[in-house]
Amino acid sequence: LSWRRRPVRRHETSVDDVTPLLDARRSSLGADAGLVERDEVTGLPDRANFQTRLLTEISRARRFHLRIALVTCEVQPPPARDDSPDGEATKQTMQRVAQAIRGAVRDYDTVARISDHTFGIILPQVQNGTGSPITRIKAALDGEADLQVNFSHMTFPDDGIDGAQMITRLERQS
Q: What is the pTM of this model?
């Protein structure tokens, strides 16, 4: 037996070679392919995307013996001051809250709009409950008049053994 190294074939692929394939894939998915799992008002991931991400983070936490925190932010917007039928004032409030939350978390945390007035935040790799963005979010929303915000907080593995159980607990809390 001979253990000779086989020559490695290297494929010369450039961006120009791949671009037509990507363009064809995008057109087959439709114009809104990038917005499939996004909230229309805030541009944040939606509930389905959030649940998928939560299951992924729980799997990672199990594998590497890490903790993750899950925070929900329930917003009670002020009464709409305009008579627009589409609720433009509420939409603007939710956009400002989404921006404040996004600015208060780390780049690799997940922020999603999981219902009309509730945001979910997945915080991977937290240590003993530290690193919660709740104080920073409250400070960012301090100037919002008549806005009430309620927070719920839980950690994995302390408060739930799987994603379904954590999501069920979240639904009960909000």
A: 0.72
